[in-house]
Structure formats: structure tokens, C-alpha cells
Amino acid sequence: MEGVEEEVERQVHGYQKWQIVAATAAITLTTLAAKDLVSNREDVYESIKNWVFRTGRSIPAVKRRIAESLDNSRKDLEKSMFEDNGLLSVQPPLKTLPPTGWTREQVLQEASNILREGKYEWRDGKISGGAFSGSDDMFTNLLEKIYGLFAFSNPLHADIFPGVRKMEAEIVRMTISLFHGTDEQCGCITSGGSESILMAMKAMRDWSREVKGVEKPEIVACVTVHAAFDKSASLLGIKIRKVPMDHNTCKVNIAAMRQAITSNTVMLVASAPEFPHGIIDDVEKIGALGQQYDVPVHVDCCMGGFILPFMEGAGYPLPPFDFRVPGVTSISADTHKYGNAPKGSSVIMYRSEKYRHYQYFVVPDWPGGIYASPTIPGSRAGGLVAVCWAALVYHGVDGYTETTRKIITTARHIKKQLKLIPEIQLFGDPLTSIVAFTSTNADIFKVGDILGQHGWHLTFIQYPSGLHICLTSLQNSDDFAERFVTDVKKAITEVGVHPGDSTGLGKVYGTAADIPDKFLIGEAAKVFLTCYYETEPSKDEELEEVNDTEGEETTKGI
Ligand SMILES: *Cc1c(COP(=O)(O)O)cnc(C)c1O
Ligand SMILES: *[C@@H]1O[C@H](CO)[C@@H](O)[C@H](O)[C@H]1NC(C)=O
What we know:
GO molecular function, one term: sphinganine-1-phosphate aldolase activity
Family: Belongs to the group II decarboxylase family. Sphingosine-1-phosphate lyase subfamily.
Membrane topology: Single-pass membrane protein
Oligomer: single chain
Pfam families: Pyridoxal_deC
Bound molecules: pyridoxal-5'-phosphate, 2-acetamido-2-deoxy-beta-D-glucopyranose
Strand order of the largest sheet: 1-7-6-5-4-2-3
CATH architecture of one domain: 3-Layer(aba) Sandwich
Strand content: 5-15%
Largest sheet: 7 strands, mixed
Structural class: alpha/beta
Subcellular location: Endoplasmic reticulum membrane
Helix content: 40-55%
Distance between the termini: 52 Å
CATH topology of one domain: Aspartate Aminotransferase, domain 2
CATH superfamily of one domain: Type I PLP-dependent aspartate aminotransferase-like (Major domain)
CATH class of one domain: Alpha Beta
């Protein structure tokens, strides 16, 4: 006690007594007010925090500083986009259509030049996710042929292209069978996991409005749920209530999920598995919650879609995660991930027609005709349907079981080896193809950077910080697990020897973790999106002088 008093005495030395009294009173009042508000409404706390940050950002000096640092991020990004990839060395960028068309040879030549850009050898599997297939030339050639045959077909017009419709119906039916569905279950094809999730959320929002009168829809999901749920919530005017994960298992905290359910809840989400750590939520418990509160339950099996259903056959049984679980009302499964179909397809499934019905969109009185489409696009690529269908029937149950067996064996091997490294901690107990880890002694983002310098392209995860590797059919060499684990060990040693600053992605994530105002991270991410659509680096101009009277607008030049 005495020590504390001395410390306080030392700290306040040099301040006037009234200043201390005033400051103490102010702090106490603010704390009490904040505590009161927090215990009532978490939203109020959020809006106060946002107000404080917004006010801070409108201070001219802060504004100028932000503009400067965003401009620096832009330069860094352009450097990595244009110089590091060697893009400046090919043809000058095309900014207008060629006045006369190129010859077939010219098109092929330029396209193969472009294909050779980039510093990663993605086919050798030193990447996490990103590409799921592409090392099997026979399969690739087959898909090329199939795409060519169907390149100009359009499933929007089923009467003109009846064959594509048949393929599409078969893809949905075959996928449902993998999830222990019967004839009662139904579904649709979409362009990818994000669209499948968007469609399920739209269906459940509209079903809940009509059947249960829910006007202010909310969904409840774990913080680890895929960002596509946030995107869909924002597009559909749905509120997303995030509940914490259990820190040991990384599964959603079921008690917290139960507490977050209200009369406005239109969906509970279970991930099988979630993206950050590859952990499968407790689908049976979430299904039971859904039944108890009469709320639809969506299983996000986008990542797991064409691996989980084959795990039992591959010798790695799992607890049920599909239509066997009562309460599960919709499931998304990506054919363009472990289905090994080229990017651009996914399947959304429903327990019953009564839900799918609310996914559809029709305009009966459009002057262009009676318009009806099942999903987001109007015209669609029949070629993508055809290659997806081809991928499914080419692999068959035995093909997918075999790829699953290889992938899971490698993942389990990596998991076992990583557990033996004292500096490494795994997130939960990953049962599928993603293994996530962190370190208590070494800065994990620096470890990621060093692995990056050695040609590895891992996924950086945050809150808490870590790395993950998502294994695919590309990691098919027998010694892959050994090579990976050896390089992780080397990187940890290197971080210990050269504890300097991070570079690359590690720097980005390290900095992001230190900035409390997430709006700024968002702005920096938008700089990336802007750079993505540049054909050449922007000219270096002086930043425009910031107009100090400019209210809340963000600074020019961002
Ligand atoms: C990939 C993924 C999605 C989104 O799918 P996209 O095809 O990228 O739109 C959703 N959930 C999980 C768990 C995923 O891994
Ligand atoms: C600054 O902004 C204010 C309000 O938008 C405007 O009236 C003024 O002309 C601007 N000044 C300059 C130098 O752009």
C-alpha cells in the first residue's frame, strides 16, 4: 500500500492540486457513465468509440498525417504490384482497345507472357489455399475441352440450352446426396461461396419476415465466421451479432450464442470448418439451439464442402455436420474449392423447398417480359456449369476420397510435427485441411515474413495473431509436411537471431494490430483495391493541401 502511495505521489508531483481533483472527477464520471452505457448497450459504447475516433480524424494535423501515410501505403503497394512482379518489363499497358484486332498468334503470345508473371511457384504447393488444383494436366486438358464446348451457352435460357440445365440440376442433386440429403432437400448453383451465403441469408430473412413477422432481421455467428457473412449482412440490411469463440477449442461459445438469440434472429451460423483456424463448430449443439428457438441454422461448409463428406471414407470420421443434424436448414458447399472445379461455382442447399422459395427473385410486370432468376446473376456462364459438372463426375466418390485421404494425412502430419516445436502453439484441435498456429516467444508475423522470403505464401490471421496453412491437392509430394515444418523451425530460429522490424505482410498486420481505429485499416485496404485496377503506377504528385474547414469528409488524395 505504501509503495502505491509513493508512486502516486511521484506521478502527481508538479501538478496543481485543483488539476488533479478535476482530472480525477472527470475520469470517474466518464468511467461511470461509460460503464453504465456499456452494461446497457454495447452499441452505445461502439458509437461513442467511433465518435471519438471520427472527431480525432477530423483534426487537421491528424488528417494530414493520415493522408501522408495512406499515400505511402499506396506507393508501397504500387511498388509490389508493378515492380516486384516485373510487370513493367512487358508491353506497355493497354489503355484503349487495339484499333485493329490482334492475330490469333499475337493473342496467345501476349497471354502466355502475362501468365508467366509473378514470383510464386503456386503449382509446387508452397501456398496456402488460393488454388486447389491445377497440377494434374490430364484433368486440366479435359476441363479446357469441356469449357470450349459450352463457352457460349447461357443457363438463363433453359429452353435454348436444355443440356446445361440438366447438368446444373445434377450438380445440385449429387451434392445434396453427399450431405445425407434426400429428395426433399433442394438447392441452387451460385458463382461461389460468398453468393451461396448471400442467398441463404436472403432466403431466411424473407422467410422470417413472411412467416414470423421479423422486421429487423439479425443473424448470430461466431467472430470466426467468414467475412462473406458481414458482406451479405451489409447488403441485405441484416444485423450480424458476433459471439466469441472458446479460447481453447476455437469453436463458437454456445452459451454466448444462446444469449444472443432474440425474436429478431433469422439465422444461426455454424462453420464446418471456419476459415481462420480450420475448426468445426459444434453443429449438433447449434442445430439444437435452432430447433429450441425455431430459428434456421446455416452450416457454412464452403471450405469443407468436398472434403468433409469424404473424411469418413478416408478413415477420418467426424461428428455429423450435415442434414443428419436436426435443425440444420441450409448448407453452402464450394465446388470451386475441394471440388477442384475452376473458380466460379458453389452449391447452396436447403432442407426444404419452403426456404428456397424465398431465395428466388421475380419481376412479373417488367416490360422486357416476366423475369425470374434463382440467384444474383442474370445471364450466366454455361461453361462454368459444364466444367463443375465435369470435375464432379471425373473424380467420383473414390477420387475425392483419395484426395481427401492425402490432404488430411498431410495435415495431421503437420499438426503432429508442429505440436513438437516448443515455440509453437496450435489453435484448437484442427481436424481438417487447415492448420493454424501462433508462437508465444517469437513474433509470429515475422515468422510469416521469413517464410515468405523462402517462397511460402501462408495466410496471416489476426485477433489473435497467427498463421495458417490450407492444404490442397497441390501439396501432393510425400515430403511436403517435413519441408514445411523444417522451414517453420528455421524461420523461428531466424527471428530469434535477427529480431529486427517486419517487412511485407508481417509489417502490414503488425501495424494494423497497433492501430485502434479500424477505419484507418479499412481506408488502407481500399487503397489496395484502388491499386488493383491501375494499369500503371500513378504519377507522383504532391498531396493536395488539406482544406482545414472541410467538415467530416475524408482527405483528398485518399
Ligand atoms: C472460401 C470461404 C467462403 C467464401 O467463399 P468464396 O468462394 O471465396 O466466395 C465462405 N466460408 C468459408 C469458411 C470459406 O472458406
Ligand atoms: C475549403 O472548404 C470550404 C467549405 O467546404 C470552402 O468554402 C472553401 O472555399 C475551401 N477552401 C479552399 C482553399 O479550397
